Structures are given as structure tokens and as C-alpha cells.
């Protein structure tokens, strides 16, 4: 039963990502995002082979992220590192763990994750504060609609 639920969750994530990737939308530059102001182009990206060092640094020394797709409907990024517990008021977030394991806050509970874990974070849900079992974890992060400047609020 658990495998069936994981398979369904993965299929839902792929459906969301696929919808974003194939939607004939104009590119949308987001304030504070790492997306380039260029039309979406067909590509194949090996996320497992993408090294942590290849991800751009951010103002948070514990977080690296690279936006892969940015449209008016959503963003798809690969990220590694850690952020303090926070929430987004205007964006839902879906994370698919590619590499690494540990635990993080999702709502009021600390949840374990490992490669293949799908984390669904509805807007307004506190999340973050990852504790990893190894040096890092890498995840695909999908935000629907795209997070805008000021949408992220730290919580205790």
C-alpha cells in the first residue's frame, strides 16, 4: 500500500512538473528569483548528476538553488541546504527528494525524508529546518504559483 501511495505521489508531482514544462506560456521574470529572462527551451537535465557545487550560492550561506523553469504559473528549482522554519502565504510547494536523507519540519511535526520522498507543503504550512544524515540533501522544489518577494515568513 505504501509503495502504491508513493507511486501515486510521484505521478502527481510529475504531472504538475509536466504541465508547467509544456504549457505554452510567456516567460515571467520573478523579482528575487534565479531564473534567467529567456524563453523556456526543451532540455533534458540529469538531476542526480547535478553536483551541489554547480548550484549557485544564495544570500543564505546554508542554501544553494538553481531555478530550472519559471513561468507565470510556477517555478521548478533544484535546491540543497537548509533554511529556517518558514511558510509561504501565496505559494504551495512540492519537494521531491533526489539525494540525501534526514528530517525537516512540515507543519507541527518533524518528518523523515530520503531519496524518493515527496513532500507536499500547502501555502500557510510551516516547513524547513532540515537535519540531514549526511553532508547535504538535494531536492526538486516546485512552487505554484511562483513565490514572490516578501512571500516567505520565518516562524518559530
Continuous helix count: 1
Distance between the termini: 35 Å
Q: Would you tell me the overall average pLDDT?
A: 81
Number of domains: 1
Main β-sheet description: 5 strands, antiparallel
Strand content: 35-45%
| Gyration radius, rounded | 15 Å
Biggest sheet, spatial arrangement of strands: 1-2-9-4-7
Order of helix and strand elements from N to C terminus: HEEEEEEEEEE
Report on this structure.
- With 156 residues, this protein is mainly beta.
- It contains one helix and ten strands; from the N terminus they run αββββββββββ.
- The protein has a five-stranded antiparallel β-sheet, with helices on one face. The protein has a three-stranded antiparallel β-sheet with strand order 6-5-8, with no helix packed on it. Strands 3-10 form a two-stranded antiparallel sheet.
- Strand 1 and strand 2 (75-81) form a beta hairpin.
- The radius of gyration is 15 Å and the shape is globular.
